[in-house]
Amino acid sequence: MSTVAVIGAGYVGLTTAACLAHIGHNVTCADIDETKIAQLNNGKIPIHEARLLELVQEGTAKQLLKFVVGAQQAVTESDFVFLCLPTPQRGDGRADIGAVLEVVEEISPIIPPRAIIINKSTVPIGTNASIHATIERSDIAVVSNPEFLREGVAVTDFLQPDRIVIGAMDEETGERVAALYAEINAPIVQVDLASAETIKYATNSFLATKVSFVNGLAAVCEAVGADIELVTRGLGSDQRIGSRFLQPGPGWGGSCFPKDMQALVRIATDAGYEFDLLKAVIEANEQQFDRIVAKAEALLDQDLSEKNLALLGLTFKAHTDDLRNSPAIEVAQRLAAKGAILTAYDPMVTSESGIPQEIRLAASMEQALTDSDLALVLTEWPEFTRANWARFISLMEGPRVVDARNVLDRKEMVELGYLYDDLGRT
Ligand code: UGA
Asked: Which of 21, 123, 232, 411 is the most exposed place for a label (fewest CB within 10 A)?
């Protein structure tokens, strides 16, 4: 058992803290948000994340997990200090590492001798080495241990990862960090600091590229009469490519892909390489939002003005309540700019979620669809697939559906009498 501090109780920090307690460590998780800490101390979690509440309650009950306000309280007896802090995108595309630097400055004079600072935040390549250079403590090591946690399945991703990447300045430090994960059955990729930082950006930008590739391929399928589901089945069976992350959609979004793509482009430019491939992928993703709008227009005689549109789904993907950089919101704003009247239903979104004012929120799918001229499925919530579309047809003013997630049964929708469009299916 090690004594561990986790600074930051966002979805990465909270998942890290709860999972480290679950595998037997003694964890103190700190955040500057007093309300959040009070909520956690009352056995509640501020985000929607499968299994997380259960693990937080388990850790608290076993007295292996506690929550405190402010980093200082958490670190004084910790041999390992995880940094799980936000690194938002700045106006120039670079990542803002202010929060990380501030915490390092605050904790470095007071952490125990030979403690290790383990950074999980996504930071520009070289940041962890420069943090180490600025700390006036020669006994303290800095390690990069990027997270690969998907929202919605973060706990599973932590406990059953494909790999654990540990970037350290020397082998012994890397091994001390690897030992923290001894209970987890996964290959450890032990590398240097800069390589670990690069692996994180490489992973997210490769995945975003994969999604944009498949979205482009779906457009080709539409043009040539091929079926994207059959094409991705064949494509993904090539083990060099793999079958995951080949689902077409309204574009990639969320709190990570867009900012990490921009950041890597920026990092490359700053280092003297123009990463034109990634720039094109970012551009293709914008085009994808426009393609979904064009599909709605095509079903409504190219005129969205005053049309009632039902938006099904607003979160950036299913099984999360996160609206940050959501493709659904991107599409909605483009539809609103063309004069459409928008009513949305999302099982995880409430009036407190902070949606743009152009979107009126409905309490159910039925309510959103009633009197609508067209519905767009923008998030792949299972309840949209399971819904009784035979009954909905009479609720709608016009039975038109753009299925931007390919989650409805095309044949059945057409047989029911819907004017139906999706991405690259025949
Ligand atoms: C992503 C990465 O998957 C995690 O490994 C990483 O740790 C995390 O970012 C991060 O950097 O913190 P997440 O933002 O939860 O996780 O989202 P993903 O599940 O990767 O999905 C990203 C976007 O791609 C979503 O908008 C999703 O709808 C879209 N997507 C994904 C598709 O359109 N098709 C697919 O086949 C897969």
From this structure: 411
